[in-house]
Every structure is written in structure tokens, then in C-alpha cells.
């Protein structure tokens, strides 16, 4: 049946939650494109037949065309939804994705992410270096009490002071500097 | 960073693509040449008039519009299924019948004769109205065996609503308890990633 392979791609994406990124399925994408090529060629032949002689092939042409449109929709939805997830991951993990997440990207997606990073950095530089990825809501306090969840090592603050982030140690750090580490799961915020 | 998705399913909506993938029984009204391979039960080279076969919704849309096939109700939306929903909407396992029961149902209705389509639409609407009360009470209930069993009856649309509602109730409670400072949390994707990663690291 037509469109089955293309739906496999969509199922890949729905099986994981919207936050996770499954491996880019280049083999299935290739198979879908191959199916579309065959559909297109057969349709071309039948269209030529119907122009010259009878119109009995029109139903076949319409059916194949519907299958082509469906495959196209699945392929595009696959790519667009992946890009949206990659973009969200960029905001969560920072500009460098961890190794095995980055490994699920295909070559063009890596390229896209690099371009996205560059544009985002250029835009933020235009705002006097404001880091948009950090503050999503107005802050309630300047410093946060945090517990360290892993041995991170030395962390240098903007004023030059160094803090040793050891597992289970507790610190009072300036909000702007530790927010990214909280998002990345290095620190845990202890609310009052 | 996430924008609220609108209700109207867009071209790239994964949910809508899944909902339009469910099969409906169709009857071929006009011979479709060269595509006999789609009909497993026949050896003819063509799709013969009068043959019955199941087609996915996205294909049926196109063919019904051109009067090449006539669509029928699939089992999940048949007369008898509708009678059950009219009598007792709350206890039906929609997930088992059709994961996106309402979305697919609206699509199926667009293929039917006006009278039957209206009946189906009305049943879908009433079913949802009745069941939405359950969805809300489930989202407030403490997790227990019974709650988990009832959760499994929900269609995907209802399940999404319920999970969303559960998060919001927790937020309301947090606000009512007078805690002003919200807690900074690791991003969901990151904490999921770390959860997946940790056990593997230990194993190495």
C-alpha cells in the first residue's frame, strides 16, 4: 500500500516524547523518495495515454497523485518537526548538544543548527549581549541557593572569583550565572 | 520558547497525519485501471467495480470526492458503536477503537451521507461533553490503580488534555499555598536525557 513507509517516519517521531530526538532515518527517507519517483513516472505515462486516447486512466492518476501528496506531507512534516525539536534542544542544552543527541542529526541538520546558532548569536550581540536563552520570566532575586548534582570542577564567575562545584556542595550564586547550569542539570535550585 | 499550537490541525501536524492514517471500508464505484495490486483479495490487474477494500482516510478523501469509491463507517464509528456511546459514553475504551477517536471521527463524517454524518458528529460532541467531566476529575485524582485503569480508556486527545490539566492543577496549588518564589528547574529534555543516560553509565 502507498504511504506506509512515509508513515513509519511519522511514527518514529510520535513514539518518543516531543522532547526527544530519534535518529535520522535516512534509509526510510530514501525508500519514500524512491516510491514517489515510481509513482511519478507511472503517472506521467498514464497522463500521456489519457491525453491522446481515453480518459479511463484518470482515476488511477488521481489515486497516485493523492499518494504523492501524502508522501510529500509526511516527509515535510518529518523534517519540520525534527527542526523544531532541534531548535528547542538548542535552547535547553546550550549551543553544544551532548554527543549522542548530536549523533541523531543528519548532515544537513548539523549545518542548519550551525546557521541557527550564528543568527541567534548575532541577534543577541545586537541587544548589548543580552542572553535571551536565560531569562524567560522576570527574576525574583539576584542570587539563588543551589546544590551541585555532579562534579563539575572549577567555575569562574564574571568578577573573576572561582567556585569549586563539587557533588552535593551548596552555593549561593548570582542568578544570571547559574541559570544555564540549572537548565543543563548540573545544579539544582533549592527554593526557600 | 514553545508557542501554543492552534487547534486547527496544520499541514505539519503529527496528530492530524496519524488521525488521517486510519482505515475506512470502501466500495469501488468505478473501475480504477492498473492498480489491482492494492486489492489483495483479487487477481485482476485493475481495481474492479464493486470490490470492497479498506483504504486509509487520506486516500478515501480524494477518491470519494471524485465518486470513484463510496466510503462506509469503520467499526469504531458504526451504528452499533454509536448506540453504545449514546447509552454509556464514559466506559468505552476509545483508545483501543481509534487512538485519535474524535479527530478521525470528524474526518470519517466528512465522507458519509449527510444524515449519517450529522448523527456521527452529534454523537462525537455528546460523548466528548460527557467524558470531559471525567477527564477533569481524573486530572485531580490521586494516582491509584483505579485511576490508571480509567486513564487507559481515554483517547489520545483526552489524554493530552488530562496531562496538561494535571500540570496546571499542581501550579494552581503551588500558587494558593503562598509560595512566591518559583523553583528553577532543569529543562524537561535535559532531565529526560540524564535519566536515560545515568543507568547506562553505571552499567559500563
UniProtKB/TrEMBL annotation, chain A:
InterPro entries named among the record's database cross-references: GINS_A, GINS_bundle-like_dom_sf, GINS_Psf1, PSF1_C
Domain DNA replication complex GINS protein PSF1 C-terminal: from-to ranges: 142-190
Keywords of the record: Chromosome, DNA replication, Nucleus
UniProt keyword Mitochondrion present: no
GO terms classed as biological process: DNA strand elongation involved in mitotic DNA replication
GINS subunit domain ranges (all copies): 43-126
Chief location: nucleus
Localization terms from the record: Chromosome; Nucleus
GO terms under cellular component: GINS complex
Primary role: Required for correct functioning of the GINS complex, a complex that plays an essential role in the initiation of DNA replication, and progression of DNA replication forks. GINS complex seems to bind preferentially to single-stranded DNA. Required for correct functioning of the GINS complex, a complex that plays an essential role in the initiation of DNA replication, and progression of DNA replication forks. GINS complex is a core component of CDC45-MCM-GINS (CMG) helicase, the molecular machine that unwinds template DNA during replication, and around which the replisome is built.
Recorded family membership: Belongs to the GINS1/PSF1 family.
Quaternary state and interactors: Component of the GINS complex.
Name by which UniProt lists this protein: DNA replication complex GINS protein PSF1
The organism of origin for this protein: Cloeon dipterum
TrEMBL record, chain B:
One Gene Ontology CC term in the entry: GINS complex
Family matches, as CDD domains: GINS_A_psf3, GINS_B_Psf3
Localization terms from the record: Nucleus
Location of the GINS subunit domain: 77-175
InterPro entries linked to this entry: GINS_A, GINS_bundle-like_dom_sf, GINS_Psf3, GINS_Psf3_sf, PSF3_N
Pfam families on file: PSF3_N, Sld5
Top-level taxon in the UniProt lineage: Eukaryota
Domain DNA replication complex GINS protein PSF3 N-terminal: 12-63
Keywords assigned: DNA replication, Nucleus
GO biological processes: mitotic DNA replication initiation
Purpose: The GINS complex plays an essential role in the initiation of DNA replication. Required for correct functioning of the GINS complex, a complex that plays an essential role in the initiation of DNA replication, and progression of DNA replication forks. GINS complex is a core component of CDC45-MCM-GINS (CMG) helicase, the molecular machine that unwinds template DNA during replication, and around which the replisome is built.
Family: Belongs to the GINS3/PSF3 family.
Oligomeric and partner information: Component of the GINS complex.
Protein name (database record): DNA replication complex GINS protein PSF3
